[in-house]
Amino acid sequence: MLEKDIKKVLISHDEIVAAAKKLGAQLTEDYHGKNPILVGVLKGSVPFMAELIKHIDTHIELDFMIVSSYHGGTSSSGVINVKKDVDQDVAGRHILFIEDIIDTGKTLKNLCEMFKDRNAASVKIATLLDKPEGRLVEIEADYTCFTIPNEFVVGYGLDYVENYRNLPYVGILKEEVYTK
After folding, report:
1. Which among 88, 150, 158, 163 could disulfide-bond with 133, CB atoms 3.0 to 4.6 Å apart, if both were Cys?
2. Of 66, 119, 131, 58, whose CA–CA distance to 94 is shortest?
3. CATH number for the domain that contains residue 45
4. How many domains does the chain have?
């Protein structure tokens, strides 16, 4: 039913799982003995984060934030609204933001600066998708699974007006769906 709105599958479920396994092994090595806090940026990060943590073989803690910058549209407004902050003190802790996508970069740049101001020991970013053509600020992920073209994508946590998050892959949404 949802597939009728997808122009093209960009990244398959199997490709996502393989990338999460590879990244999980890297994070196991990089964070061994550091007990990092993985901060999922809700809602889009949930499927990726759930897959990723299965492949990390060292102690980690999980926390979540609700941060919005899209407000129902197809591009970031640049206005960052923190609706839910992390539940624990991050001072002296290693923070790894888990994101579904880095597009303009404004949200993550603001979050990274916020956590550095809170005296985190380190602040890094792991993202399923990187869309460098959409970047409006200078920021790079420390860990990227896939670099994608400047297309409006949905699935595997990414949405259009809260729909399509449950697709098991990342696909390009047909333009007629969001230009009606």
Report:
1. 150
2. 119
3. 3.40.50.2020
4. 1
So which residues are the catalytic ones? Answer: 103
Q: Tell me how many degrees the CA angle 118-124-130 measures, rounded to the nearest 5.
A: 130
**103 burial via Cβ count (<10 Å: 0-12, 13-18, 19+):** buried
Note whether 17 and 168 are within 8 A (CB): no
Tally Cβ neighbours within 10 Å of residue 19.
Answer: 19
Do 35 and 41 meet the contact criterion of CB atoms below 8 Å apart?
Answer: no
Q: Give the separation between CA 56 and CA 20, rounded to whole angstroms.
A: 9
Length of the chain counted residue by residue = 180
Q: Evaluate if pTM is beyond 0.90.
A: yes
Residue range(s) defining the domain that contains residue 35: 1-173
pLDDT greater than 90 at residue 78: no
pLDDT tens digits for 27-54? Answer: 999 999 999 999 999 999 999 999 999 9
Q: Is the pLDDT of residue 142 over 70?
A: yes
Q: Is 106 helix (H, G, I), strand (E, B) or coil?
A: helix
Q: If you search the block for the tokens 């985190």, which residue do you land on?
A: 120
